[in-house]
Automatic annotation (TrEMBL), chain A:
Coiled coil: none
Function according to Swiss-Prot or TrEMBL: Part of the phosphoribosylformylglycinamidine synthase complex involved in the purines biosynthetic pathway. Catalyzes the ATP-dependent conversion of formylglycinamide ribonucleotide (FGAR) and glutamine to yield formylglycinamidine ribonucleotide (FGAM) and glutamate. The FGAM synthase complex is composed of three subunits. PurQ produces an ammonia molecule by converting glutamine to glutamate. PurL transfers the ammonia molecule to FGAR to form FGAM in an ATP-dependent manner.
Spans traversing the lipid bilayer: none
EC number(s) given by UniProt: 6.3.5.3, 3.5.1.2
Gene3D superfamilies: 3.40.50.880
A GO molecular-function annotation: glutaminase activity
Stated name of the protein: Phosphoribosylformylglycinamidine synthase subunit PurQ
Positions of the catalytic residues: 87 (nucleophile), 196, 198
InterPro entries the record matches: Class_I_gatase-like (IPR029062), PRibForGlyAmidine_synth_PurQ (IPR010075)
Catalysed transformations (reactions): N(2)-formyl-N(1)-(5-phospho-beta-D-ribosyl)glycinamide + L-glutamine + ATP + H2O = 2-formamido-N(1)-(5-O-phospho-beta-D-ribosyl)acetamidine + L-glutamate + ADP + phosphate + H(+); L-glutamine + H2O = L-glutamate + NH4(+)
Pathway: Purine metabolism; IMP biosynthesis via de novo pathway; 5-amino-1-(5-phospho-D-ribosyl)imidazole from N(2)-formyl-N(1)-(5-phospho-D-ribosyl)glycinamide: step 1/2
Localization of this protein: Cytoplasm
Chief location: cytoplasm
From TrEMBL, chain B:
Every Phosphoribosylformylglycinamidine synthase linker domain range: 19-59
Subunit structure: Monomer. Part of the FGAM synthase complex composed of 1 PurL, 1 PurQ and 2 PurS subunits.
Protein name: Phosphoribosylformylglycinamidine synthase subunit PurL
Residue intervals of the PurM-like N-terminal domain: 85-199, 459-578
Cited InterPro entries: PRibForGlyAmidine_synth_PurL, PurL_linker, PurM-like_C_dom, PurM-like_C_sf, PurM-like_N, PurM-like_N_sf
Catalyzed chemical reaction(s): N(2)-formyl-N(1)-(5-phospho-beta-D-ribosyl)glycinamide + L-glutamine + ATP + H2O = 2-formamido-N(1)-(5-O-phospho-beta-D-ribosyl)acetamidine + L-glutamate + ADP + phosphate + H(+)
The organism of origin for this protein: Umezawaea endophytica
CDD domains (UniProt xref): PurL_repeat1, PurL_repeat2
Enzyme class, first EC level, given as a word: ligase
Annotated GO CC locations: cytoplasm
Domain PurM-like C-terminal, first and last residues per copy: 213-372, 592-729
Record key words, sorted: ATP-binding, Cytoplasm, Ligase, Magnesium, Metal-binding, Nucleotide-binding, Purine biosynthesis
Coiled-coil ranges (or none): none
C-alpha cells in the first residue's frame, strides 16, 4: 500500500507542485487537497506548502487558518497525523494553533532568497528521523516574513523539550529568536519550518538534495506507525 | 450625468473637443472625423487617442519593422508559430512543446512610482504570455538606473527591485536573471524592461481574435476602477466634486496599482479554462484597457462586436464610458467564448473566485458598437482604432556630433603598466557598480519556485526545465551595452545580440529566437530616429546572419530628460533550447578536479565604450568592438558539441570588464582559485581588460583538454590555454603580475551594492 500525502492548495499557494514532487521523489502518492473542501481524502499525512495564501494581505496565514480544509487538518493532527508546514505553511500552522509562536517581517526588511545551512537539532520527529542529530543541511530559504518570535516562556519550553528541529547556521538570516528555523509539536508529529526542503530534492534544480530526508522520514513514520 | 452619445455627436458637430490635451494632433483629429463622418463621442475620442498613442500604435517605429520581415529566411520562419503583432512571439522547440516570450518596458511609471511601476510591469508581461494560451514559466528583468551613488537612484532602485520581487514572488514565477546597469543618462529616466517566458503544447496556441457571430465576450479578473486613467481624465465631467471641494473630479494616480494575488488566481483560472478547451480567443487588458482589448479582438476577428459597457464590474462610482474604456486597472482579461461554453467558463471562474461578466458578443456586422444603458456611445470600424492608426516616417539624421564622438577614441587614456597597478585595477573594476555582484538584487527574487530552475543569476543565462520526463529545457539571456550603441547604433545593437546569443550558448543551449525591447529618446528628434533605424537594421541583419528570428518585442520612445536622450538601449533577449538540462554548463569553475582554463576567440586592443574607460576615466568615445557574427555562431556550435560530449565543465562569457572580470567571477562563483598565464605576444593590460566580442572562458577537465582543443583547431576557432584551476588555492594568481586573494576579491565584488543600498 502506498503512502498518501495530501498537499493543500489555497488561492495564492505557490509551492504545491514542488511539495507534491518531493512526496513523489520519496515514493509517496501526492494527493491534491483544496482549501474549500474539508475532505482529506484518506491521506496519511498533510503538507501545507509555501506561497501567499489569499494574498496574505492581512497577517500571513491569518485567513488560511479558517479554510474548511484546515478544520480537518487540525482535527487529524490532534489524532497524531503527521503535518508539515513549509514557509507560509509554517505561518498557517502557527495561526492555527498547531505550533506555538509567530513569524514576523525579516529583520533586514527585505525578502530574502538564499541557500541556507541548517543544523538538525532533533531527529526524532515524523519529518526528521532520517537525519543524523547535529547534521548540517543546505536548503533554500525564501521569505519576507520569516523571523520566528514567541514569548520567552514558549522559547524556553521549546528549547527545554528539544522541540527546536532546525536551527540556522551562521548569520541569522531573518532575526529569528535563538536562530530557530523550524519547530515541532509536543508529540513530534507536526513540524513547521521557514526554509524549503521541497526545493532541495535534486542537485539539478536545488542547491543539494538534502531536503529529501524530510519526506523520506515521513515514509518511515507512516510505515512504522 | 449626461453622457455623450453618437446621437448627440451627430447633432452637435461643432462642439469643441479636448483632443490636443489627449495627445492627438490636428490632422489626427481630422482623420477621426473623416473616418466616422462626424465628430467622435467622448468615448470614441478616448479610444482613438489612446490607441493612436505612440505606446499603442507604434506610429513612429512601424515603418522600420519591415527590416525584420524582410530579413526573414525560410530557416528562420520554420520554427515560428506566431510573430510580431501577436501578444507575444511563439516558437516550436520540438517534442510538441512551444515557447512564447516577450520583453516589455514599464519605464516611465517606474520613475514616478518605482514599486508599483515595476510591479505592474511584471504583471503586464505575464498576462501577455497567458494571452497566448501558455503557462508562464519564469520572469527576468532588465533594469537601468542613473549613477549608482546618485541620491535619486537610492529612491528608484530599491523600489523597483522590491516591486519586481513583491509582484513576481507572489505569482510563483522564478526570476532567473536579467541585468542591472548604471549610467548617468538614465538618471531621470530609468529603464524597467520585464521579460516573461511561457510554455504550451503546440496545439493549444490561442491567438487573440473574436470570431464567430453569437460568441460571447467575457471580461474576467479584477474590477475596473479609476486608476491609470491618465490623460483621459480631461474628459471627466466637472460636475463631480473632488475631495478638495474645488469642484474638480478627484484624480487618482496615473500609475496603476498591482494586486499580485489576483493575478496569481487569474493565471490558474486561465490555465484551467485552456485545459477545458472552452476559449475561442483571449486578450489581456494592459495599456489602453478595454479600448485596446475590444478593438483588437474585433479587428482581428471576422465580424463586429457589441459591448454593453454598463455590465463591466466597477470599483468606483459614477465612472463615465470614456473612463471605463480607458482605465488601466490591472489583472483583467477578456475572452471570446461560444454560447454553449459560457456556463462551464463561469464555473471555472467561480472555483477560483474570479469575477466574470458577459459584457457583449460577436456580431455579424463590421462595426464595434458599445452601448451604455441602451444608448450608443461608440460605433466605429475596429480596424481604424486598433490597426490603422497614423504612421509616421519621421525625419532621420545622423547626429552632428557623431564624428566627434568617434574621433575621441580611448587611445590617449592612461593605461596601467606596472604589475601592482594592473592588479589594483582588477579589484577596482570588480567593485565598480556595473561589474559588482548583483546578489543584493537577486536575493530579493524567488528563483526556486516550481522546481524547474536549473540555472539562474549569477549564471550568464537562466535555464528552466520544461519537461520532467525528457529533461528538455530552455535558456534565456538579455543584454545591451548602451555605450556601444551610442558610439555605433548598428554595431552596438549587433553586439547586444551577440552577447545574449553567447550567454545562451555558454549554458549549453542552442539559440533559436529573439525578442527585443527598444528603449530610445524622442522620435521627434531626427538624431534619435537615426539611432533607432540603425539599431533595427543592425538587429535584423544580425538575426539573419545568426539564423534566429525576432518573434516580437516592444518599443519605448521618449526616454529622455529635457532634450537629453538616454543611451540608445535596444535590450535583446535570446531564447535557447536544450534537449537535456542535465548537461547544462555552469559559470563557476572547480566543479571537477583538475581543470584547464582556455580562452576561445581573438583579443584585440578594443577599449571604445569599454567598462574600463567608463570606470577609470569616465570616458565614452571611439568605436565599439568589432562584430563577427559568424564567429559567434561558431562559438555556439563548439560549446554545444563540448556540452554534448561532456568536454566542458564550466564556461563564462567575456564581456564588460574583459578577461579579468570573467576570471574573478568564475573563481568567486565556483569558490575556487586559479593560476593564469598571459601571452607574451600581447601586453597584459589589453589581454585582461579588452572587451573584444566573440570570446568565452571555458574550463575543461584535463582528460578532455586535447580532444577539445583539437576540435577547436579543426573548426578554426582560435583558442589559447590561459591557466589551470586550483581547488587548493585561495587566490587568483596571474603569472608575472602577482596574486589576488579570493577573500579580497569577494569583499570588493560583493560589497558594493549592499554599501550603496542597504
Amino acid at each position: 500500500m502506498s503512502v498518501r500525502v495530501g498537499v493543500i492548495t489555497f488561492p495564492g499557494t505557490l509551492d504545491d507542485v514542488d511539495a507534491a514532487r518531493a512526496a513523489r521523489y520519496a515514493e509517496a502518492e501526492a494527493v491534491p487537497l483544496w482549501h474549500g473542501d474539508p475532505d482529506l481524502k484518506g491521506v496519511d499525512a498533510v503538507i501545507v506548502p509555501g506561497g501567499f495564501s489569499y494574498g496574505d494581505y492581512l497577517r500571513c496565514g491569518a485567513i488560511a487558518r479558517f479554510a474548511p480544509v484546515m478544520g480537518s487538518v487540525i482535527e487529524a493532527a490532534g489524532k497524531g497525523m503527521p503535518v508539515l508546514g513549509i514557509c507560509n505553511g509554517f505561518q498557517i500552522l502557527c495561526e492555527a494553533g498547531l505550533l506555538p509562536g509567530a513569524l514576523i517581517r525579516n529583520s533586514g526588511l527585505h525578502f530574502v532568497c538564499k541557500d541556507q545551512w541548517l543544523k538538525v537539532e532533533n531527529n526524532t520527529t515524523a519529518w526528521s528521523s532520517r537525519y543524523e542529530k547535529g547534521a548540517e543541511i543546505l536548503v533554500p530559504l525564501k521569505s519576507g516574513e520569516g523571523g520566528y518570535q514567541a514569548t520567552q516562556s514558549t522559547v524556553d519550553e521549546l528549547e527545554g523539550e528539544g522541540r527546536v528541529v532546525f536551527r540556522y547556521v551562521g548569520d541569522n538570516p531573518n532575526g529569528s529568536r535563538n536562530n530557530i528555523a523550524g519547530i515541532t509539536s509536543a508529540n513530534g508529529r507536526v513540524v513547521g519550518l521557514m526554509p524549503h526542503p521541497e526545493h532541495a530534492i535534486d542537485a539539478l534544480t536545488g542547491p543539494t538534495d538534502d531536503g529529501l530526508g524530510m519526506f523520506l522520514s515521513l515514509m518511515d513514520a507512516v510505515v512504522n506507525a | 450625468m449626461s453622457i455623450d452619445t453618437v446621437k448627440n455627436a451627430e447633432t452637435t458637430p461643432d462642439q469643441e473637443q479636448p483632443f490636443r490635451e489627449l495627445g492627438l494632433k490636428d490632422d489626427e483629429y481630422a482623420r477621426i472625423r473623416e473616418i466616422l463622418g462626424r465628430r467622435p463621442t467622448d468615448a470614441e475620442l478616448a479610444m482613438y487617442s489612446i490607441m493612436w498613442s505612440e505606446h499603442c500604435s507604434y506610429k513612429s517605429s512601424k515603418v522600420h519593422f519591415r527590416h525584420f520581415s524582410e530579413s526573414l529566411t525560410d530557416e528562420m520562419r520554420a520554427k515560428m508559430l506566431a510573430g510580431i503583432g501577436e501578444n507575444a512571439g511563439v516558437v516550436d522547440i520540438g517534442d510538441g512543446w512551444a515557447i512564447t516570450f516577450k520583453v516589455e518596458s514599464h519605464n516611465h511609471p517606474s520613475y514616478v512610482e518605482p514599486y508599483q511601476g515595476a510591479a505592474t510591469g511584471v504583471g503586464g508581461i505575464v498576462r501577455d504570455i497567458i494571452a497566448m494560451g501558455a503557462r508562464p514559466l519564469a520572469v527576468m528583468d532588465s533594469l537601468r538606473f542613473g549613477k549608482a551613488d546618485a541620491p535619486d537612484t537610492r529612491r528608484v532602485l530599491p523600489g523597483v527591485v522590491a516591486g519586481v520581487g513583491g509582484y513576481g514572488n507572489c505569482l510563483g514565477l522564478p526570476n532567473i536573471g536579467g541585468e542591472v546597469v548604471f549610467d548617468e543618462s538614465y538618471a531621470g529616466n530609468p529603464l524597467v524592461n520585464a521579460l516573461c517566458v511561457g510554455v504550451l503544447r503546440v496545439e493549444d496556441l490561442h491567438l487573440a481574435h473574436a470570431s464567430g457571430a453569437g460568441n460571447k465576450i467575457i471580461l474576467f479578473g479584477a474590477r475596473t476602477g479609476l486608476d491609470g486613467i491618465g490623460g483621459v481624465s480631461v474628459l471627466a465631467s466637472d460636475t463631480f466634486a473632488g475631495d478638495d471641494g474645488s469642484g474638480k473630479r478627484k484624480k487618482l494616480p496615473a500609475v496603476q496599482v498591482g494586486d499580485p494575488f489576483t493575478e496569481k488566481v487569474l493565471i490558474e483560472c486561465c490555465l484551467e479554462l485552456f485545459q477545458q478547451g472552452i476559449v475561442v480567443g483571449i486578450q489581456d487588458l494592459g495599456g489602453a484597457g478595454l479600448s485596446c482589448a475590444t478593438s483588437e479582438l474585433a479587428s482581428a476577428g471576422d465580424g463586429g462586436m457589441h459591448v454593453y459597457l454598463e455590465r463591466v464590474p466597477l470599483r468606483a462610482t459614477g465612472m463615465t464610458p470614456a473612463e471605463i474604456l480607458s482605465s488601466e486597472s490591472q489583472e483583467r482579461m477578456c475572452a471570446v467564448v461560444a454560447p454553449e461554453n459560457v456556463d462551464a467558463f463561469m464555473a471555472v471562474c467561480a472555483k477560483w473566485d474570479v469575477i466574470a461578466s458577459e459584457i457583449g458578443e460577436v456580431t455579424e456586422g463590421e462595426r464595434l458598437v458599445i452601448t451604455w444603458n441602451d444608448e450608443v456611445v461608440v460605433d466605429v470600424p475596429p480596424r481604424t482604432v486598433a490597426h490603422e492608426g497614423p504612421v509616421y516616417n519621421r525625419p532621420i539624421e545622423r547626429p552632428a556630433d557623431q564624428d566627434a564622438l568617434i574621433a575621441n577614441g580611448p587611445e590617449s587614456l592612461a593605461r596601467p603598466t606596472a604589475a601592482a597597478d594592473i592588479l589594483k585595477t582588477i579589484v577596482t573594476m570588480a567593485a565598480s557598480p556595473n561589474l559588482a555582484s548583483r546578489r543584493w538584487v537577486t536575493q530579493q527574487y524567488d528563483r526556486y519556485v516550481r522546481g524547474g530552475t536549473v540555472l539562474a543569476q549569477p549564471s550568464d543565462a537562466g535555464m528552466i526545465r520544461i519537461d520532467e520526463e525528457t529533461n528538455r529545457g530552455i535558456a534565456l539571456a538579455t543584454d545591451c551595452n548602451g555605450r556601444f550603441t551610442k558610439l555605433d547604433p548598428y554595431a552596438g545593437a549587433q553586439l547586444a545580440l551577440a552577447e545574449a546569443y553567447r550567454n545562451v550558448s555558454v549554458s549549453g543551449a542552442t539559440p533559436i529566437a529573439v525578442s527585443d525591447c527598444l528603449n530610445f529618446g524622442s522620435p521627434e528628434d531626427p538624431a534619435v530616429m537615426w539611432q533607432f533605424e540603425q539599431a533595427i537594421r543592425g538587429i535584423a541583419d544580425g538575426c539573419r546572419e545568426l539564423g534566429i528570428p525576432v518573434t516580437g518585442g516592444n518599443v519605448s520612445f521618449y526616454n529622455q530628460t529635457g532634450s537629453t536622450a538616454i543611451l540608445p538601449t535596444p535590450v535583446i533577449g535570446v531564447l535557447g533550447v536544450i534537449d537535456d538540462v542535465r548537461r547544462r554548463i555552469p559559470t563557476g569553475i572547480g566543479a571537477e578536479a583538475g581543470e584547464t582554463l582556455l580562452l576561445l576567440g581573438d583579443t584585440r586592443d578594443e577599449f571604445g565604450g569599454s567598462e574600463w574607460a567608463h570606470v577609470v576615466h569616465g570616458h565614452l568615445g571611439g568605436t565599439p568592438p568589432k562584430v563577427d557574427l559568424a564567429r559567434e555562431r561558431l562559438l555556439g556550435e563548439v560549446l554545444l558539441a563540448g556540452s554534448r560530449d561532456g568536454m566542458v565543465s564550466a564556461a563564462h562569457d567575456l564581456s564588460d570588464g574583459g578577461l579579468a572580470q570573467a576570471l574573478v567571477e568564475a573563481c568567486l562563483i565556483g569558490e575556487t582559485g586559479a593560476r593564469v598565464f598571459l601571452d607574451s605576444d600581447q601586453d597584459a593590460f589589453t589581454q585582461l581588460f579588452s572587451e573584444s566580442a566573440g570570446r568565452v572562458l571555458v574550463a575543461v577537465p584535463r582528460s578532455e583538454e586535447l580532444r577539445f582543443t583539437d576540435m577547436c583547431t579543426a573548426r578554426q576557432l582560435p583558442w589559447r590555454k590561459v591557466g589551470v584551476v586550483d581547488p587548493e588555492s585561495e587566490s587568483l594568481e596571474i603569472q608575472d603580475l602577482g596574486q589576488l586573494q579570493l577573500g579580497e576579491l569577494r569583499a570588493a565584488w560583493e560589497g558594493t551594492l549592499p554599501a550603496l543600498f542597504d
